[in-house]
Structure formats: C-alpha cells, structure tokens
Amino acid sequence: MSAVRPLSDSGLLELWERCGAKPPVERSLSLLEHGFPDMARDEIEILDIRTRDRLLIELRAASIGPQLEGRLQCPRCAEWLEFALETEALRHTLAQDPPPPAQASACGGYEIHLRPADSRDLVLAARTRDLAAGRRLLLERLVEIRDGEGLCVPAEAISAELLAEATERLETLQSQSEIRLDFVCAACGAEHAHFFDAGAFFWLEISQAARRLIDEVHELAWAYGWPQSEILAMSARRRQAYLDRIWQ
Ligand SMILES: [Zn+2]
C-alpha cells in the first residue's frame, strides 16, 4: 500500500477551499488523492468502503494525530456523551473481515447476486435528484437477479417481493462496511449504536482547522505584514509565539 503524505497547513487550506462545495463522497476521494499521491484516482474510486475509510483514518492520524475525540447525543435522554478513539484501533478493525467482493444467494427459484458499493456507485447515487432515485440507481448497479437457468431477469420482470428481498440483502451487505460504535449513556444507561462516518468526521476537523488557520494568517499578516505563504510555512508553535506577542 502506498505511503501517506500528511496534510500541511497550506495543503489543508487548499483542500478546504477546493472541496467545500463538493458532495461528501467526492470530498473523501479528493482527500485520498492528496494524501496518497502514489495512487491513481481510478484506483481510489474502486476501493471498497472499509479500505477507503481505513486510508482516510491513516491520513487523519498522520496529519492531526493518533487520537480522535468527539461527542454525540444520547437518542433517549439527549445528554451529550464524549468519546475518544485510537485511530490505530479503528484501522485494525477496518482491516479485519472485509466484505466479500460479490455475493450470491438463493431466493425462491431465483438467485440474487450482489456486490458492495464503491465510491463510483456512491458518487453517481449522490448526483441523483432524491434519496429514492439514489436507492434505485444503487439497486440497478449492485444487484442482479438470475432465474433457474442462470439468465438475468430484466428489471421490469422482477416481482415486488423479490425486489424487497434483494433490497434487504443489499442493505445487510452495505452495513458490513460501516464503523459501528456501541455506547452506554452515562446519564440514563441506554445502550445504543452509532455509525461513525470517517469522511464526515475528518472533514469537520479540516473545516475547523481551516478557520483557525485563516484567523491566524489574518492576525499575523495584519500585525507584521507577512505574506500568507510565509505564515503558513511556519510551525504552529512559532505562529502561536508571535500571536502571543500581539495579544500581550
Ligand atoms: Zn441517555
């Protein structure tokens, strides 16, 4: 697997500016393109979702650090729960039990063939006009029904019952790609599962870091007249030392 290139401060700002208006799936692809320069875009697009998330977490660990901290709300009592995760443990979990590249199972006199979605499928689904159209597109791309003779059944000939069964099996297969975190609420004792979205979490951190960097550039450029490139090339420690002097 190729070597990770951590985000520099200027690289982070450039990505934040370029990808802010993109849909989340495409944002994650751009992050990986930047973070793994040895991998071609095509290679990144066909990664299974667990591998994609594992690389996102690797890039996050190399750029920001090995520990993730976040909070989520208890769905029963609305209390906020703080959590900390080691990126290494997440990467380890994601490296285990990858979903099968394809799956076939019998249903009545038919066979349901499935494959898990990759980023190409998710990019196309995100471009459809609504959720229902996105789901239909994923079904068309990821599911194939074959009759007793192994012939492909055209979409219009598939019964509602068979389609519902295929949809359910596809959802089960897709859920194997998710990062599930189990929590017990400290306030009310409720147990619940949270699905951790590595791309969304990392993007939120990037947005927060970008705003902080822009504030710092703004203050230092205003106080000292230095150009943005020089300010961003400084270490965070040195920038902070100058900022402390402005505020003294
Ligand atoms: Zn609770």
Descriptive notes:
This protein is α+β, with helices and mostly antiparallel strands and 248 residues long. It folds into two domains: 109 residues, no CATH class; 74 residues, no CATH class. Helix content is 54%, strand content 16%. It has eleven helices and seven strands. The strands form three sheets. Strands 3-4-5 form a three-stranded antiparallel β-sheet. A two-stranded antiparallel sheet has the order 1-2. A two-stranded antiparallel ribbon has the order 6-7. Strand 6 and strand 7 form a beta hairpin. Helix 4 packs antiparallel against helix 5. The longest helix is centred in the last third of the chain and has 27 residues. It is elongated. It starts with 8 loop residues before the first helix and ends with a helix. The mean pLDDT is 93. It binds zinc ion. The site of zinc ion has 8 residues, from loops. Zinc ion binds next to loops.
Give the percentage of residues in beta strands: 15-25%
How many helical elements?
11
Order of helices and strands: HHHHEEHEEHHEHEEHHH
**Cα radius of gyration in angstroms:** 22 Å
> Averaged pLDDT, please?
93
What is the 3D form?
Answer: elongated
Helix content: 40-55%
Structural class: alpha+beta
Query: Poorly predicted ranges (pLDDT <50, ≥5 residues)?
Result: none
Largest sheet: 3 strands, antiparallel
Measured distance between first and last alpha carbons: 48 Å
Number of domains: 2
Strand order of the largest sheet: 3-4-5
Number of strands: 7
Bound molecules: zinc ion
In short:
The protein is 54% helix and 16% strand.
